[in-house]
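Try it yourself: sequence plus DGJ, in.
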Amino acid sequence: MKSFVCILLLSVGLSASSIPQIVRKGDKYSLLVDGKPYIVLGAQVSNSSGWPSRFEQLLPGAEAMHLNTIEVPVYWENVEPQEGQFRFDTFDTIIRLAREHNFHLVMLWFGTWKNGTMDYAPDWVKTNTTRFPRMIDNGGHPVRVLNPMSEANLNADRTAYSTVMKHLKEVDGDQHTVILAQVENESGSLFTDRDHSAEANREFAGPVPSKLLEALHKKPGTWTQAFGAEADEAFAAYYVSRYVNAVAEAGKKEYPLPAYANVWLREQKNFMRPGEAYPSGGATLNMLDLWKAMTPSLDAIAPDNYVLDYANYQSVLAGYHRKDNPLLVPETGGPRFASNIFYALGDFDALGYAPFGLDRAVEGGKVNDLAKGFAEDCRLLGPAIPLISELQGTGKLHSAVEEQYLTDRLIHSSKFDVLVQFGTLHSEYGGTFGTQTPGMTGRALVAELAPDEFVVIGFDAHVRFRPARGRKERNAQFLSAEEGTYVDGQWKTTRVLNGDETFFAVRFPPQGAMLRFKLMAY
Ligand code: DGJ
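Structure, out:
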């Protein structure tokens, strides 16, 4: 593993003192922190917990959760209470506290947009509606959202954000406590699909900018001709993405930390109307091509994935996992977040995964029942980050996750088939099958190190091997089954399993285990 890290460092010319980066090699993306592959195993604090006293209370719980990263807001209204007068005491203290507890941070810029509204703009922006115009809905009324077409709005936000980044470089440029910057939060507009001011209506009736049409391979025409039923939304997305990119670009000129935009998804159980069910103009999947064309200064566009059913959860991951977009899940939730991380890391090469609401997950330094599974995930996955990062994008890493009626997952590798089964095994016509665990908690990550060597990180599961179908050998035999973990990228065995522990199937307990198998086929 060490050799992999060295080769990667040499090939991208990085050293331990390098600024965090998202690098692309072929179709594979890696997040590098201090020159080493990194995966965010994080959580996001509640919206009003980016304050030192509150943040400090959460840190023992974050440690108990085995997180490596915490996502924390930086509020425009706090850093620039008067125009041009900046204060960084809040942010500086948060950085110091995170450092003292060995956490990295993702900085969430609550600027022009927060959940499709302007609630974190300072007073001097909110009250001066002439200088800082709001969007107008189709009834002619102003809404609680700054107008993305306004240069004054953009200039104000851009100045604030780039001043924050300049300061960050001064206080953190050599330590890299902050590893990623989220530019705005769930940008786009609630309450209206686009700006309907007279000026916007004139623009909307005119031609779509030719650069955008070229990037999207569309014929010249008006917004309606080019985008049909999605014209209002595409018009909004053009101005919002242009604005977010300009803010990110200005910030990177000061301090080129990797930057991403997060997305309030369109995937809803209702009528999916932009501006009602989700902020119009955000980088929803139907606007993702447009956003990618408009945001060269963003390293990623990242879904806040709160989808509850696993099929749609995965299709969101698949939608944002593109050759031109590394997957990052900066927010997630619902009862399945301890399982969904396995899909994200194992099947969609996620560079990070962070449930929302650390405050709800921990109390008095302890992890609540709701987050215990995720804490166990982080405990086992953390030491395996170099391995996971190396195998992502190679086809040698797979998830196996229990879902309702999905109790047996078959994974194919070059030489062996790996069968991961959940619940008590029972024999039936046709073989031995898994059953459902009481909490549907079975989950595993299967990593192929070599054709006859695997690492499996699993919970509430049984694992069995057979030679791949079509091979002449019929059976697999363990040469070794070692329980252990990685320490600084090197495998360390804590015990060797054999006898009852391997005879029928290898069992992974509810609290999880990491096992390394060497096999032969006969
Ligand atoms: C998504 C937002 O990005 C977060 O700031 C927070 O408001 C959550 N929704 C709450 O579910």
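One thing you can check immediately is this: Residues 125 and 409 are 54 Å apart (CA to CA).
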